[in-house]
User: What shape does this take?
Amino acid sequence: MDYVAKVKEYDPNADEERVKRLERRLALVLNKRDTASVAASDPKEVERAAAWVAKACSVPLDEAKRAVDGALETMKNERMKNRLVVYYLSASSLGKLADL
Assistant: This one.
């Protein structure tokens, strides 16, 4: 999958190097179909994504949860919400892309 193009669907000015770094960081997760997406309808899955963002971006969990919720809302028209895109958009909204 071209993750840079996928992120640019939501952020036309996406930092390509950050996307590629995030892709390398998430390589194992992205290779499995069941873990490559965030199930927005599953509260535990959203909580898991928020925990990752909180840790990666060094922010409180509630702040990360709001960022993940915002990313999922942005992607609401997508059935399969790609994990890398959710994480990128969340970090971007937190102003923490440099942490990725």
Summary: The CA atoms of residues 33 and 62 lie 28 Å apart. The longest strand covers residues 37-38. The radius of gyration is 12 Å.
